[in-house]
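Thread amino acids onto this structure.
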């Protein structure tokens, strides 16, 4: 179902690793809605080669490698994207996250702080890097839209989310702080989407993920939001229909964030 909501718009999508990735589904939906795309991921992720399948499905979108911790890589990405589009960019999806502490199963009380540096750099500071590069190159057009993906562990405690919770809190704050500066300079809007737990490579890295996802499903009046639902929400935020929305953390979670307890969870506890 296409409404051509993004007809004529040009966007950069970070973080499509495989078919399960939220970024992958978002790229496909943006393409369906008439957008032209540049796809990017870390060089190591690109070596797996799956992104070329996505690129073909998106009208042979160029794939430009960029490690989000490298300013040189990001400068190159935005410069090449503007050359490719022959002008400015309308939207950017930041769909990037990684924690070695989570991968290694390190408890929050026993973090490897070298890993924590990396977590913060890749998962949060990278949004600042992306925005600063775009700002200095004047790469994003007026009323352009930037979306980054986050999780409610930025506000509430989810013990197994480890140092990613801290990274998400920083990410959301960068969206607000840069949202002010980019908004006043160029009317560029910046928001975060706080997504339900979703079965992807990054998501499944979290310990006890199955319990996590079942609990959220039982707590949410609408159930968990899928990656496809998230892709649709991203499309709406890239479209002109949401042009006055900025600096927001937008919960996309079937109602989870406003629940105390649900009947389904009470019944489960009584068993
Ligand atoms: N899956 C969930 O449950 C869930 C819930 C809420 C928010 N999110 C967020 O959604 C976003 C996308 O994650 P996903 O669930 O689709 O998983 P995913 O594993 O498919 O995507 C994560 C992406 O980050 C990329 N990445 C890692 N290090 C990088 C680097 N140095 N440079 C550039 N890219 C790098 C990976 O290559 C990968 O493409 C993340 O920010 C994640 O925290 C996920």
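Threaded sequence (271 positions):
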């Amino acid at each position: 179902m296409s409404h051509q909501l993004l007809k004529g718009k040009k966007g950069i999508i970070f973080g499509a690793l495989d078919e399960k990735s939220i970024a992958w589904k978002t790229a496909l939906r943006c393409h369906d809605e008439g957008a032209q795309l540049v796809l990017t991921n870390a060089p190591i992720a690109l070596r797996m080669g799956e992104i070329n399948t996505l690129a073909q499905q998106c009208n042979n979108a160029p794939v430009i490698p960029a490690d989000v911790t490298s300013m040189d890589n990001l400068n190159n990405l935005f410069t090449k994207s503007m050359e490719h589009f022959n002008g400015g960019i309308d939207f950017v999806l930041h769909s990037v996250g990684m924690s070695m502490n989570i991968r290694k199963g390190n408890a929050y009380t026993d973090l490897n702080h070298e890993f924590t540096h990396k977590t913060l750099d890749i998962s949060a500071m990278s949004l600042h890097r992306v925005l600063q590069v775009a700002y200095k190159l004047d790469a994003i057009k007026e009323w352009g839209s930037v979306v980054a993906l986050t999780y409610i562990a930025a506000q509430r405690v989810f013990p197994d989310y480890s140092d990613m919770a801290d990274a998400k809190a920083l990410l959301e704050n960068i969206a607000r702080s840069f949202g002010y500066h980019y908004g006043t300079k160029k009317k560029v809007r910046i928001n975060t989407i706080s997504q339900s737990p979703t079965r992807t490579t990054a998501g499944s890295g979290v310990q006890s993920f199955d319990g996590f996802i079942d609990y959220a499903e039982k707590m949410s009046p609408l159930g968990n939001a899928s990656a496809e639902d998230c892709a649709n929400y991203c499309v709406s935020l890239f479209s002109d229909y949401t042009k006055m929305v900025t600096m927001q953390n937008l919960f996309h979670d079937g109602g989870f964030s406003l629940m105390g307890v649900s009947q389904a969870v009470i019944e489960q506890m009584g068993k």
